[in-house]
Amino acid sequence: xxxxxxxxxxxxxxxxxxxxTLAYQSLGVVYGDLSNSPLYVFRSTFSDEVGDAVPVDKxxxxxxxxxxxxxxxxxxxxxxxxxxxxxxxEGGTFALYSLLCRHARVSSLPNVQVADEELxxxxxxxxxxxxxxxxxxxxKSTLEKHKVLQRILLVLALIGTCMVIGDGVLTPALSVFSAxxxxxxxxxREHHRYVEVPAACIILIGLFALQHYGTHRVGFLxxxxxxxxxxxxxxxxxxxxxxxxxxxxxxxxxxxxxxxxRNSQKxxxxxxxxxxxxxxxSEAMFADLGxxxxxxxxxxxxxxxxxxxxxxxxxxAAYLSRNHVVRQEYHFGFYVSVPEKLRWPVLVIAIxxxxxxxxxxxxGTFSIxxxxxxxxxxxxxxxxxxxxKIHGQxxxxxxxxxxxxxxxxxxxxxxxxxxxxxxxxxxVITVMLVTTCLMSLxxxxxxxxxxxxxxxxxxxxxxxxxxxxxASLVKFLEGAWVPIVLAFVFMTVMYVWHYGTLKKYEFDxxxxxxxxxxxxxxxxxxxxxxxxxGLIHTELVSGIPAIFSHFVxxxxxxxxxxxxxxxxxxxxxxxxxxxxxxxxxxxPRDFRLYRCIVRYGYRDVHKDDIEFENDLICSLAExxxxxxxxxxxxxxxxxxxxxxxxxxxxxxxxxxxKEDNSxxxxxxxxxxxxxxSELKEIKSPVIQPKKKRVRFFVPESPxxxxxxxxxxxxxxxxxxxxxxxxxxxxxxRAKAGSSVLKKFGINVVxxxxxxxxxxxxxxxxxxxxxxxxxGMMYQI
Length: 780
What we know:
The chain is an alpha/beta fold. It is built from 23 helices and eleven strands. The protein has helices spanning 2-29, 41-45, 56-79, 93-103, 135-145, 147-180, 189-209, 222-244, 254-264, 266-275, 283-287, 294-322, 343-374, 397-414, 417-445, 451-473, 481-510, 515-520, 546-554, 609-626, 706-721, 740-756, 761-765, and strands at 384-385, 394-395, 528-537, 557-569, 581-585, 593-600, 645-647, 657-660, 693-696, 723-733, 771-779. Strands 7-5-6-4-3-10-11 form a seven-stranded mixed beta sheet. A two-stranded antiparallel ribbon has the order 1-2.
């Protein structure tokens, strides 16, 4: 009993060590942006008060609003409510959208199958099933019946995503520009304007230029930098409270916030645009949930971030309450409240903290664009995984340089913290509004809670965020137009790409070839079969794609083994390796035609070509060996999900293979097979920088049917002969008589995006000499 009790205590200690370690790491990744807010909140809020003596009650009112906004939105809304709406540990706008897609059939993905709902991570009924006559059941039926509502839901998710991308442009510019603004206290205004902008631009260029190295190389410094920064601002806040105004704690009463809004009226409402900057970065707690855990993020925020920032804001207010005659705008800045002897060290730490905060939002932008691309809502881009150990650290070259150019443009164009703050504030509050709307649907559809709870959530947080949104929107001409323009451009790109992808899939479905046609031309398929494996890349999950009939009509030969390969994404973060492949047979067994559907989650990492081919061959062989869906008849006219088998990757297969390495060949002799009549279970090889070719072979076993043995041997022989990838290249044109808007969207915008986007991840990794493109013209 004592031993069991000791083991239990040790496991609890280890689990708490893990949680505390994650909490420590989250400080550098999640809270970098949020911790930079004291640099610009008061300066943006009081930007119209230059030259006047600001009343103490007004300063107290602003502090009260900052405190309650910071308490209600990040603490109550995100920490206690939104973090619970994770999608198998993942967070963010698309996590909420994928949750809704699984609990109601509102998915925008074209090739959805019933078999996808059997995935382990689907977890559709983890909260139980809503009663048939409940409001949740009626709402679900309404969403599933009306395509318009499904489009509105998709557009809502895309708006939130576009604003996150806009925030990825504005936050680095605002954070870095606010950090270097500390130079204005040590030089004249004439000299300062020639230093501030170039310094900010140099830091931004360096930040984006280092992105391809990945954050894992300097990531261990992030948490210490943010902790040091939080310690500095909280210590300075405590000093200012006791030195200038120990009674500033009274401003935490909501009475001062109410009085400020009542007395200031329009001025107080306009000031909300600056106050909302105190919650910029709150969305990162939910968006970066996949890298940490709910408990670790909650511990870091409630024990370190929240008290540190509250003390920092109180210290600034205490200083301003005794120094409220303002002659220059920078008198409202953060650095004025810093003791003069500490300004230079604090300036250096602030710049480092701004870089860390910017890094977090840039990485988050890369991540959400990858998710959008996986769900067919963004053109394909090159995704580089910068770390083999840390999941989710990616780099997208095209987006990186685009963000850098846009960052430099807004920095040079505005050269002003106030207008940058107006732009960033609108982007942030729009994302929060979208989260509130989607979260209310999650409460009803996924959690099966009372509709009054969802209405209460929307009423409380939606009202607060709507006030901030209106205050930001009024400042349209003072910088708030930037996120709107950026969101409009990205929204157009994303919606046109998604629309074109759906129309292309509909065209493929309408023009697919039936299996009757395949059976009618006989076992030989009317052409000469050459050695090798032919992988026909298609989006279809059933039927024969038109490119196959187009190919065999124009060429007299084809491969001895043909696989219709569909690489699809499902609305879950990850698909387990043992559930990755869905394999079936197309037509009679003698045709050697197979269908393989490879399923990925929107955060999964795709394998390279050699390892992918190995897993594919293993899956085919395992499918053939089990014979669960094999059919010897020649009149199979239909194909459905129930005639396909779920097969895992090589690590879960019983396959024989060895590395074909001339320097160090792996000798698998007869002694290795002694004492067993089954296929030997091994793991897939580790791919080294120098790729090693893997050879497959089938051991003799009396338990394997002769026909299955012949088919397996033919598969292995074809694999040794080589693998060829047949890829369709589509050119889309709108039909004659289509509207002008449709012609412009398809003929101009979509075709421009298609020509200038990357090929699929499979196509990118395929050697040029192994690929063959088949052109098709689509009239939609």
